[in-house]
Design brief:
By secondary structure, the protein is an alpha/beta fold. It has helices at about 5-10, 15-30, 45-55, 70-85, 100-115, 130-135, 160-165, 185-200, 235-240, 255-265, 270-280, 290-315, 340-350, 375-385, and strands at about 35, 95-100, 120-125, 140-145, 170-175, 200-205, 230-235, 245-250, 325-330, 350, 355, 365-370. It contains 14 helices and twelve strands. It is globular, with a radius of gyration of 21 Å.
């Protein structure tokens, strides 16, 4: 008899399965669906990067197995990016490694350091990989750090029992934040770094939205505060390259070495021609400010954000503007009982959003919009939503 491993049994049910089934039924019935649920940029990869990739893929030297740690010129480009973007110095040889998209790095860092029973501090609501794909699949024990609106969706460190902190081995932290769109000021990052030092755990700073910012906001990296931790970033959001799967991890030598040890056993790295194309994009950064190939897309997403937020507020659905990410995280109307049921109501109107409960128990009472539709479709979605508000 074939049985799943016990760790698979620890994974929660796929909460979106019911919504996916409803979507399929609606499509079969010819319903026009406006999907604002998936965090996948709909804008195209910058032409400069695509042209570079086309040229690089023709080179036979770029068609062989890559290194799982990333090509040397790729790691050097990432080091240069950290210097011009954040003003910090990193060694390409020992403090940077390639990952096949941020998700892979987030999961494999746990494989390198988490033993059965180890406590991992996980934000909730949060990217499900922290709690499930990383911690539980390594037989670790997730401790949920609630992200409440009253705390600006930052974890309340004082609320974590010291007995937990003393046992914790690792903390996942993600700002700009998915799903809330919240940002973390540097003084908070300093505070959490102090906690990590006092209680002897390390921080995995998941930072894929570092360039997905609005209103002149410039996102920091935790490595500006302390380089004894590890940051994971990628080309997915900043260059609209989610399907190409190319990112990096940077920081503490021991953490990078551990991640490399895992990767050397299970993958062969990101394709060389993709790494070469990402180098082209990273070299466009000349300062902490976003280059035009990035800023051009941010202007599009900022317009979409403003149209959606203004439209929701005009109909009485009070919603605040996020300063980063392409997500709008908002409480469901007062007369609604659950995020899942409210999301189903919107699907009946042909508007698809993500119920907050999908990001963990503390996401209940919220829904997440992704700004992945053109302005005209967002306006149409607003017209549909107004019918039930």
């Amino acid at each position: 008899m074939i049985e799943y491993a016990k760790r698979i049994g620890r994974l929660p049910p796929y909460i979106f399965a019911e919504i996916e089934q409803i979507k399929l039924e609606k499509k079969k019935n010819g319903v026009d669906l406006i999907s604002m649920s998936i965090g996948d940029p709909d804008l195209t990869t910058p032409e400069l990067i695509l042209n570079e990739m086309i040229e690089q893929v023709k080179d036979p030297n770029n068609q062989n197995y890559p290194s799982s740690m990333g090509e040397e010129d790729f790691r050097q480009a990432v080091a240069r990016w950290y210097k011009v973007r954040f003003g910090i110095n990193l060694e390409a040889v020992s403090e940077i490694t390639n990952v096949i998209g941020g998700k892979e790095g987030v999961a494999n860092i746990a494989r390198a350091f988490i033993n059965p029973g180890d406590i991992v501090l996980c934000p909730n609501p949060g990217y499900p990989v922290y709690e499930n794909g990383a911690t539980k699949l390594c037989d670790g024990e997730p401790y949920l750090m609630p992200l409440f609106k009253k705390n600006d969706f930052l974890p309340d460190l004082e609320a974590i029992d010291t007995s937990i902190l003393k046992k914790a081995k690792m903390m996942y932290l993600n700002y700009p934040n998915n799903p809330t769109g919240a940002i973390a000021p540097k003084d908070f990052l300093k505070k959490v770094v102090d906690y990590a030092e006092d209680y002897n755990f390390f921080i995995v700073y998941d930072n894929p939205y570092s360039e997905f910012t609005f209103d002149d906001y410039i996102a920091p990296t935790i490595l500006q505060v302390d380089q004894n931790h590890i940051e994971i970033n990628s080309a997915s959001k900043m260059f609209c390259m989610t399907g190409f799967r190319c990112g990096w991890a940077a920081g503490n030598v021991k953490l990078i070495t551990g991640l490399r040890k895992v990767k050397s056993q299970i993958d062969s790295g990101c394709s060389i021609f993709i790494q070469k194309a990402v180098i082209k994009g990273l070299n466009e950064f000349k300062s902490e400010r976003k280059p035009e190939i990035v800023e051009k897309n941010m202007r599009v997403y900022q317009e979409r954000r403003d149209v959606l937020i203004n439209g929701l507020n005009d109909m009485g659905w009070k919603t605040e503007k996020p300063r980063a990410t392409f997500y709008v995280w908002t409480q469901i109307p007062e007369d609604e009982t659950s995020s899942m049921e409210f999301a189903k109501k919107l699907i009946d109107l042909g508007v698809i959003v993500t119920p907050g409960i999908g990001f963990g128990q503390y996401g209940e009472g919220f829904v997440r919009f992704a700004l992945t539709q053109p302005v005209e479709r967002i306006r149409e979605a607003l017209e549909r939503i107004e019918k039930i508000l």
